[in-house]
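Question: I have long wanted to understand how a fold can be written as C-alpha coordinates. Here is the record:
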Amino acid sequence: MDNLIFSFNVIMPIFIVIALGYFIKEVGLIDDRFINTAVKFNFRVGLSTLLFENIYVSKLSDIANTKLMIFVFLCIFGSVLVLWLIVPLFIKDRKRASAVIHTIYRSNFVLLGVPMGMYMLGKSHMGPISLLLPIVIPTYNFFAVLVLAAFDERGDKSGIGSKIKYTLVGIVKNPLIIASFLGIVFQLFSIKLPLFMERAVSDVASLGTPLALITLGAQLEFKSVKENLKYSITASVGRLIVVPCIVVTLAFLMGFRKYDLGAIFILFSSPSAISCYVMAEEMNSDYKLTGDVVILTTFFSMFTIFIGIYLLKSLSLL
Protein backbone atom coordinates (compact mmCIF):
# COMPACT_ATOMS: atom_id res chain seq x y z
CA MET A 1 0.00 0.00 0.00
CA ASP A 2 2.86 2.40 0.78
CA ASN A 3 4.26 1.90 -2.72
CA LEU A 4 0.87 2.61 -4.28
CA ILE A 5 0.53 5.81 -2.25
CA PHE A 6 4.07 6.88 -3.19
CA SER A 7 3.42 6.25 -6.90
CA PHE A 8 0.11 8.11 -6.74
CA ASN A 9 1.68 11.10 -4.98
CA VAL A 10 4.42 11.29 -7.62
CA ILE A 11 2.25 11.17 -10.71
CA MET A 12 -1.02 12.87 -9.76
CA PRO A 13 0.27 16.38 -8.91
CA ILE A 14 1.96 16.48 -12.32
CA PHE A 15 -1.13 15.55 -14.30
CA ILE A 16 -3.45 17.69 -12.21
CA VAL A 17 -1.37 20.75 -13.17
CA ILE A 18 -1.30 19.58 -16.82
CA ALA A 19 -5.09 19.22 -16.68
CA LEU A 20 -5.31 22.73 -15.25
CA GLY A 21 -3.40 24.06 -18.24
CA TYR A 22 -5.75 22.26 -20.63
CA PHE A 23 -8.82 23.53 -18.74
CA ILE A 24 -7.85 27.20 -18.63
CA LYS A 25 -7.09 27.07 -22.37
CA GLU A 26 -10.46 25.46 -23.12
CA VAL A 27 -12.43 28.05 -21.11
CA GLY A 28 -10.57 30.89 -22.80
CA LEU A 29 -8.56 32.26 -19.89
CA ILE A 30 -5.42 32.03 -22.04
CA ASP A 31 -4.93 32.02 -25.80
CA ASP A 32 -2.32 30.71 -28.22
CA ARG A 33 -0.37 33.95 -28.13
CA PHE A 34 -0.01 33.77 -24.34
CA ILE A 35 0.92 30.08 -24.50
CA ASN A 36 3.63 30.64 -27.11
CA THR A 37 5.08 33.53 -25.12
CA ALA A 38 4.95 31.56 -21.87
CA VAL A 39 6.66 28.55 -23.47
CA LYS A 40 9.51 30.71 -24.80
CA PHE A 41 9.86 32.56 -21.50
CA ASN A 42 9.91 29.39 -19.44
CA PHE A 43 12.37 27.65 -21.73
CA ARG A 44 14.78 30.59 -21.71
CA VAL A 45 14.30 31.73 -18.12
CA GLY A 46 12.35 29.42 -15.79
CA LEU A 47 13.65 25.97 -16.73
CA SER A 48 17.14 27.29 -17.49
CA THR A 49 17.39 28.91 -14.06
CA LEU A 50 16.05 25.75 -12.44
CA LEU A 51 18.66 23.62 -14.20
CA PHE A 52 21.43 26.02 -13.19
CA GLU A 53 20.24 25.95 -9.57
CA ASN A 54 20.10 22.14 -9.51
CA ILE A 55 23.73 21.91 -10.63
CA TYR A 56 24.84 24.87 -8.51
CA VAL A 57 23.55 23.38 -5.24
CA SER A 58 24.81 19.86 -6.03
CA LYS A 59 28.28 18.53 -5.44
CA LEU A 60 29.93 17.98 -8.80
CA SER A 61 31.49 14.76 -7.54
CA ASP A 62 28.00 13.47 -6.76
CA ILE A 63 26.48 14.18 -10.18
CA ALA A 64 29.48 13.45 -12.43
CA ASN A 65 28.75 9.97 -13.72
CA THR A 66 30.44 9.04 -16.99
CA LYS A 67 28.90 5.58 -17.01
CA LEU A 68 25.38 7.03 -16.82
CA MET A 69 26.05 9.57 -19.56
CA ILE A 70 27.50 6.98 -21.95
CA PHE A 71 24.72 4.50 -21.22
CA VAL A 72 21.98 7.04 -21.97
CA PHE A 73 23.65 8.21 -25.18
CA LEU A 74 24.10 4.64 -26.42
CA CYS A 75 20.48 3.79 -25.60
CA ILE A 76 19.19 6.77 -27.58
CA PHE A 77 21.54 5.98 -30.48
CA GLY A 78 20.59 2.30 -30.36
CA SER A 79 16.85 3.04 -30.34
CA VAL A 80 17.20 5.36 -33.35
CA LEU A 81 19.25 2.78 -35.25
CA VAL A 82 16.89 -0.13 -34.52
CA LEU A 83 13.81 1.93 -35.38
CA TRP A 84 15.46 3.20 -38.57
CA LEU A 85 16.00 -0.41 -39.68
CA ILE A 86 12.67 -1.89 -38.56
CA VAL A 87 9.96 0.75 -39.03
CA PRO A 88 10.35 1.15 -42.85
CA LEU A 89 9.80 -2.61 -43.22
CA PHE A 90 6.24 -2.21 -41.93
CA ILE A 91 5.41 1.40 -42.83
CA LYS A 92 6.15 2.17 -46.47
CA ASP A 93 5.00 5.79 -46.37
CA ARG A 94 8.23 7.67 -45.61
CA LYS A 95 6.51 10.60 -43.89
CA ARG A 96 4.64 8.28 -41.54
CA ALA A 97 7.76 6.18 -40.96
CA SER A 98 9.79 9.22 -39.93
CA ALA A 99 6.99 10.38 -37.61
CA VAL A 100 6.83 6.98 -35.90
CA ILE A 101 10.62 6.80 -35.45
CA HIS A 102 10.78 10.37 -34.18
CA THR A 103 7.98 10.05 -31.63
CA ILE A 104 9.15 6.69 -30.27
CA TYR A 105 12.77 7.59 -29.55
CA ARG A 106 12.29 11.20 -28.41
CA SER A 107 10.72 11.84 -25.01
CA ASN A 108 9.43 14.99 -23.33
CA PHE A 109 12.29 14.90 -20.83
CA VAL A 110 12.81 18.66 -20.81
CA LEU A 111 9.28 19.50 -19.65
CA LEU A 112 8.48 16.41 -17.57
CA GLY A 113 11.92 15.26 -16.44
CA VAL A 114 12.52 17.99 -13.88
CA PRO A 115 9.06 18.03 -12.22
CA MET A 116 8.83 14.24 -12.18
CA GLY A 117 12.35 14.01 -10.79
CA MET A 118 11.54 16.43 -7.98
CA TYR A 119 8.45 14.46 -6.94
CA MET A 120 10.03 11.04 -7.44
CA LEU A 121 13.63 11.52 -6.32
CA GLY A 122 13.41 14.65 -4.18
CA LYS A 123 14.97 18.04 -4.83
CA SER A 124 18.21 17.07 -3.09
CA HIS A 125 18.69 14.11 -5.45
CA MET A 126 18.19 15.88 -8.78
CA GLY A 127 21.85 15.48 -9.76
CA PRO A 128 21.34 12.68 -12.33
CA ILE A 129 18.48 14.60 -13.99
CA SER A 130 20.57 17.78 -14.19
CA LEU A 131 23.48 15.78 -15.57
CA LEU A 132 21.43 14.14 -18.32
CA LEU A 133 19.64 17.23 -19.66
CA PRO A 134 22.70 18.72 -21.41
CA ILE A 135 23.41 15.26 -22.88
CA VAL A 136 19.89 14.45 -24.00
CA ILE A 137 18.97 17.79 -25.59
CA PRO A 138 21.71 17.88 -28.28
CA THR A 139 21.45 14.13 -28.88
CA TYR A 140 17.69 14.27 -29.46
CA ASN A 141 17.95 17.28 -31.75
CA PHE A 142 20.84 15.93 -33.79
CA PHE A 143 19.16 12.58 -34.48
CA ALA A 144 15.85 14.30 -35.22
CA VAL A 145 17.44 16.25 -38.04
CA LEU A 146 19.13 13.13 -39.43
CA VAL A 147 15.96 11.03 -39.34
CA LEU A 148 13.56 13.64 -40.70
CA ALA A 149 15.96 14.77 -43.44
CA ALA A 150 16.76 11.19 -44.50
CA PHE A 151 13.06 10.31 -44.82
CA ASP A 152 12.09 13.56 -46.54
CA GLU A 153 10.04 12.54 -49.61
CA ARG A 154 11.03 15.67 -51.50
CA GLY A 155 14.38 14.05 -52.14
CA ASP A 156 16.31 17.27 -51.62
CA LYS A 157 19.30 16.02 -49.67
CA SER A 158 21.47 19.02 -50.44
CA GLY A 159 20.10 20.76 -47.39
CA ILE A 160 20.96 18.07 -44.83
CA GLY A 161 24.36 19.58 -44.11
CA SER A 162 22.92 23.04 -43.58
CA LYS A 163 20.17 21.62 -41.38
CA ILE A 164 22.72 19.80 -39.23
CA LYS A 165 24.83 22.96 -39.04
CA TYR A 166 21.77 24.97 -38.06
CA THR A 167 20.93 22.39 -35.38
CA LEU A 168 24.47 22.42 -33.96
CA VAL A 169 24.38 26.22 -33.74
CA GLY A 170 21.00 25.98 -32.04
CA ILE A 171 22.41 23.48 -29.55
CA VAL A 172 25.27 25.81 -28.63
CA LYS A 173 22.79 28.67 -28.16
CA ASN A 174 20.28 26.52 -26.27
CA PRO A 175 19.50 28.21 -22.91
CA LEU A 176 19.46 24.86 -21.09
CA ILE A 177 22.90 23.98 -22.42
CA ILE A 178 24.23 27.42 -21.42
CA ALA A 179 22.64 27.11 -17.96
CA SER A 180 24.22 23.67 -17.49
CA PHE A 181 27.61 24.97 -18.55
CA LEU A 182 27.39 27.91 -16.15
CA GLY A 183 26.33 25.64 -13.31
CA ILE A 184 29.32 23.36 -13.94
CA VAL A 185 31.69 26.35 -14.11
CA PHE A 186 30.37 27.69 -10.79
CA GLN A 187 30.90 24.24 -9.28
CA LEU A 188 34.39 23.67 -10.70
CA PHE A 189 35.70 27.03 -9.53
CA SER A 190 33.70 27.06 -6.26
CA ILE A 191 32.04 30.36 -7.18
CA LYS A 192 29.43 31.36 -4.60
CA LEU A 193 26.61 33.72 -5.35
CA PRO A 194 25.72 36.39 -2.78
CA LEU A 195 22.77 35.43 -0.61
CA PHE A 196 20.41 37.89 -2.30
CA MET A 197 21.33 36.41 -5.72
CA GLU A 198 20.81 32.85 -4.49
CA ARG A 199 17.34 33.81 -3.28
CA ALA A 200 16.53 35.55 -6.57
CA VAL A 201 17.73 32.51 -8.54
CA SER A 202 15.63 30.24 -6.34
CA ASP A 203 12.53 32.38 -6.82
CA VAL A 204 12.89 32.42 -10.61
CA ALA A 205 13.69 28.69 -10.67
CA SER A 206 10.46 27.95 -8.80
CA LEU A 207 8.55 29.14 -11.89
CA GLY A 208 10.03 26.44 -14.09
CA THR A 209 8.12 23.35 -12.97
CA PRO A 210 4.50 24.63 -12.69
CA LEU A 211 4.73 26.83 -15.79
CA ALA A 212 6.15 23.94 -17.85
CA LEU A 213 3.27 21.67 -16.84
CA ILE A 214 0.58 24.33 -17.38
CA THR A 215 1.83 25.18 -20.86
CA LEU A 216 2.15 21.49 -21.68
CA GLY A 217 -1.51 20.97 -20.86
CA ALA A 218 -2.53 24.11 -22.73
CA GLN A 219 -0.87 22.84 -25.91
CA LEU A 220 -2.84 19.59 -26.04
CA GLU A 221 -5.50 19.26 -28.75
CA PHE A 222 -7.67 16.11 -28.69
CA LYS A 223 -9.85 16.87 -31.72
CA SER A 224 -7.81 15.04 -34.37
CA VAL A 225 -6.67 12.01 -32.37
CA LYS A 226 -8.97 9.62 -34.31
CA GLU A 227 -6.95 10.16 -37.48
CA ASN A 228 -4.10 7.71 -38.08
CA LEU A 229 -5.19 5.75 -35.00
CA LYS A 230 -3.46 2.54 -36.12
CA TYR A 231 -0.08 4.22 -36.42
CA SER A 232 -0.45 6.52 -33.42
CA ILE A 233 -1.30 3.60 -31.13
CA THR A 234 1.69 1.64 -32.45
CA ALA A 235 4.02 4.57 -31.79
CA SER A 236 2.47 5.18 -28.36
CA VAL A 237 3.02 1.57 -27.30
CA GLY A 238 6.61 1.82 -28.48
CA ARG A 239 7.19 5.08 -26.62
CA LEU A 240 5.47 4.21 -23.33
CA ILE A 241 5.98 0.45 -22.98
CA VAL A 242 8.57 -1.12 -25.29
CA VAL A 243 11.37 1.45 -24.98
CA PRO A 244 11.21 1.95 -21.18
CA CYS A 245 10.92 -1.80 -20.51
CA ILE A 246 13.98 -2.60 -22.61
CA VAL A 247 16.12 0.31 -21.41
CA VAL A 248 15.27 -0.01 -17.70
CA THR A 249 15.97 -3.75 -17.85
CA LEU A 250 19.34 -3.06 -19.49
CA ALA A 251 20.06 -0.38 -16.87
CA PHE A 252 19.31 -2.85 -14.09
CA LEU A 253 21.61 -5.45 -15.64
CA MET A 254 24.32 -2.77 -15.96
CA GLY A 255 24.13 -2.16 -12.22
CA PHE A 256 22.23 1.15 -12.08
CA ARG A 257 20.17 1.60 -8.93
CA LYS A 258 18.27 4.21 -6.91
CA TYR A 259 18.57 7.77 -8.24
CA ASP A 260 20.50 6.88 -11.41
CA LEU A 261 17.95 4.21 -12.30
CA GLY A 262 15.15 6.66 -11.46
CA ALA A 263 16.60 9.24 -13.84
CA ILE A 264 16.87 6.63 -16.60
CA PHE A 265 13.27 5.55 -16.01
CA ILE A 266 12.02 9.14 -16.15
CA LEU A 267 13.92 9.86 -19.36
CA PHE A 268 12.75 6.81 -21.28
CA SER A 269 9.20 6.53 -19.90
CA SER A 270 8.19 10.14 -20.56
CA PRO A 271 5.70 10.80 -23.40
CA SER A 272 6.75 12.02 -26.84
CA ALA A 273 8.13 15.54 -26.89
CA ILE A 274 5.84 18.35 -28.04
CA SER A 275 8.80 19.71 -30.02
CA CYS A 276 8.44 16.63 -32.25
CA TYR A 277 5.36 18.26 -33.78
CA VAL A 278 7.16 21.51 -34.57
CA MET A 279 10.09 19.76 -36.22
CA ALA A 280 7.80 17.38 -38.15
CA GLU A 281 5.91 20.32 -39.64
CA GLU A 282 9.10 22.14 -40.57
CA MET A 283 10.86 19.11 -42.11
CA ASN A 284 8.08 17.51 -44.17
CA SER A 285 7.27 14.63 -41.82
CA ASP A 286 3.70 13.57 -40.98
CA TYR A 287 3.01 16.30 -38.45
CA LYS A 288 -0.63 15.28 -37.92
CA LEU A 289 0.40 11.75 -36.92
CA THR A 290 3.15 13.25 -34.77
CA GLY A 291 0.64 15.45 -32.98
CA ASP A 292 -1.67 12.49 -32.38
CA VAL A 293 1.16 10.48 -30.80
CA VAL A 294 2.15 13.40 -28.56
CA ILE A 295 -1.42 13.65 -27.28
CA LEU A 296 -1.93 9.91 -26.76
CA THR A 297 1.41 9.38 -25.04
CA THR A 298 0.91 12.39 -22.78
CA PHE A 299 -2.48 11.08 -21.65
CA PHE A 300 -1.59 7.41 -21.24
CA SER A 301 1.79 8.09 -19.65
CA MET A 302 -0.19 8.96 -16.51
CA PHE A 303 -0.97 5.25 -16.19
CA THR A 304 2.23 3.69 -17.55
CA ILE A 305 4.51 5.88 -15.41
CA PHE A 306 2.38 5.15 -12.34
CA ILE A 307 2.75 1.40 -12.95
CA GLY A 308 6.49 1.79 -13.60
CA ILE A 309 7.10 3.72 -10.38
CA TYR A 310 5.06 1.21 -8.41
CA LEU A 311 7.04 -1.73 -9.82
CA LEU A 312 10.40 -0.07 -9.16
CA LYS A 313 9.42 0.79 -5.58
CA SER A 314 8.00 -2.69 -4.97
CA LEU A 315 11.28 -4.24 -6.16
CA SER A 316 13.24 -1.82 -3.91
CA LEU A 317 15.06 -0.38 -6.93
CA LEU A 318 14.20 3.22 -6.01
About this structure: DSSP finds 14 helices and no strands in the chain.
